[in-house]
Amino acid sequence: MAGSSGWRRGHGLWRRGARGRRGRVAGKVALVTGAAGGLGRSHVRRLAEEGADLVVVDLCGPVDTVPYPQSTPEQLDDAVEEARALGRRVVARRADVRDRAALQEAVDAGLDAFGRLDVVVANAGIAPLLVEDRVEAWHDAIGVNLTGTFHTVEVAVPSMVAAERGGSIVLVSSTAGLVGIGGASNGGLGYAASKHGVVGLMRTYANNLAPHSIRVNSVHPTGVATPMVTDPAVVAFVAQDPVLSATAPNALPVATVEPVDVSNAILWLASDEARYVTGVTLPVDAGFINRR
Ligand SMILES: NC(=O)c1ccc[n+]([C@@H]2O[C@H](COP(=O)([O-])OP(=O)(O)OC[C@H]3O[C@@H](n4cnc5c(N)ncnc54)[C@H](O)[C@@H]3O)[C@@H](O)[C@H]2O)c1
C-alpha cells in the first residue's frame, strides 16, 4: 500500500502546513468528553485544526472528592470559540459522563446538527487523590473514569453502526491502566482499577465492533502537565505517599509530556492513517512502561 499513488498523494496532502491541504480528519465529526480543560481542550484544538467538526461535552463543575479545580463553563466556551475560529462547527453541552441520558442528548444534538458521528474520544477523567482519604474517592473514580467511558461509547455506537461508515473510538486510559501504580488510597486504587477497566472495555468493544469497521483503541499517557498533575493538592498527595513518590521516572529525560503529545496520538488513531489499527494499548509515556 505504501507504494501506491493514493498513499503518496495522501501523505503529501496531510503534511502540516501544506497549502490547501485537506486535514487528516476532514469531513469527520468527533465527540470529545472532558473537552473544556487539560488534555480535552488540546484534543479539540488538534481535531479542529485537522478538519473535524465537533461535539464537545464537559461537566464544568466540581466532583466532591477531586482536590484540584475542574473546568468552568467559561473554559468550555473558550474551547468552542477556538474550534469555531478554526472554521469548524461545534455542538457543546454541559454534561456529566456518569449521566447516560445527558450524554445521549449531547450525541443526539450532534447528529441533528451534523448528520454523522465518526470519532469518539472518551477523555473525561478524574484523579480523586485526597490526603484525607475517603472511600467515596473509589466510587467517584470508577463512576467517572470507567462507567463514564462505558456510557460514552454506548451512546455513540448505535448511530455509527447504523451509518455503516466505520469509525474510530479512542479511550483515554493511563500508564496506571497497564501497570500496578496508584498507591494505597481509595482514590488511587480506584484510579488504577478504572484505568485497567478501560482496557477491558477497549479490547471487548474492538472485537464486538470490528465487523462494522469501527476501530477501538486506548492511549496511556505518563504524567501530563495538566491540573491533574501540577496542582499543589496533587503534588502534596504524591509527596506523602511513599510508593507514589518513589515511582521511577520516565525513561526519556522529561518529567511530564505536553497535552498535544497525547492529542497527536489520538489524532492519528482517529484518522484513516490508522485504518487497520484496532485493539491496541498505545502508550504516550516517554518510555515509562518499558523501563518497569
Ligand atoms: N494529566 C495526566 O498526567 C494524565 C495522565 C494519564 C492519563 N490522564 C487521563 O487523561 C484524561 C484527561 O485528564 P486531564 O489531565 O486533562 O485532567 P483535567 O482535570 O485537566 O481535565 C479533565 C476534564 O474532564 C472534565 N470532567 C471531569 N469529570 C467529568 C465528568 N464526570 N463528566 C464530564 N466531564 C468531566 C473536567 O471538567 C475537565 O475539563 C483523564 O481521563 C485522565 O485520567 C491524564
Describe the structure in your own words.
The chain has 292 residues and is α/β, with parallel strands linked by helices. It has a single domain, classed as NAD(P)-binding Rossmann-like Domain (Rossmann fold). The protein is built from ten helices and seven strands. The chain has a seven-stranded parallel β-sheet with strand order 3-2-1-4-5-6-7, sandwiched between helices. Strand 2 (53-58), helix 3 and strand 3 (90-94) form a beta-alpha-beta unit. Helix 2 (38-49) runs parallel beside helix 3 and helix 5 packs parallel to helix 6. The longest helix has 28 residues, at 136-163. The radius of gyration is 18 Å and the shape is globular. The two termini are 36 Å apart. Bound molecules: nicotinamide-adenine-dinucleotide (NAD). The site of nicotinamide-adenine-dinucleotide has 31 residues, from helix 2, helix 5 and helix 7.
